[in-house]
Amino acid sequence: MAVDSVASTTSATAKSSQTSAMSASLDYDDFLQLLIAQMKNQDPTDPMDASEQVAQLATFSQVEQAIQTNSYLESLIASNALDIASDYVGKTITSADGNTSGTIAAVKVYSDAMVATTTAGDKITIDVGVTIGSPGTASTGDSTDTSDSSDTDSSDTAS
Fold it and tell me: Integer distance in angstroms from the first to the last C-alpha of the chain?
């Protein structure tokens, strides 16, 4: 169930990355058309220097590669968020203010946040100060807070 709720985010991110790549490709084609038009319409008595043309092409190629790198990074970040979200399912969670807690039934991943839904139907945004613990442990102060990048399982030792 939790995988279904985060799978739509993955496909949306992939579509966004494909759109960015297609946009970069169209821009590259437009650049080549402009370069050809520039060459056709240049002043024959003062032609454009070949090194200027190569420099323009190289600069635009670098921009295109940066756009593709960004789309790959977006995809990697989305995949990482899905991995993290799937690890949270079944664990206990306590909100930052301590008023809401329960066992995580599903996690929905957004572009800027993750929202956990407990088995009771409560929704908790996973943010700094939220405590996530192993299943079956009481959500007390001995759990690792999500602002720490270490795994939460290693810090939970309930007697």
Answer: 31
Question: Which residues, including other chains, have CB under 8 Å from residue 16's CB and lie 6 or more apart?
Answer: 71, 74
The answer to the question of residue 117 being in a domain is yes
**Around Cβ 132, how many Cβ atoms within 10 Å?**
22
The amino acid at 111: S
Residues 97, 119, 153, 141: is their CA dihedral positive or negative? positive
Question: Is residue 159 within 8 Å of 137, Cβ to Cβ?
Answer: no
H/E element, 106: strand 101-109
The helix (H) or strand (E) run that includes residue 82 is helix 50-88
In a domain, 110, yes or no: yes
**pLDDT tens digits along 102-154:** 999 999 998 888 999 999 999 999 989 999 998 765 444 444 444 444 444 44
The structure's pTM equals 0.51
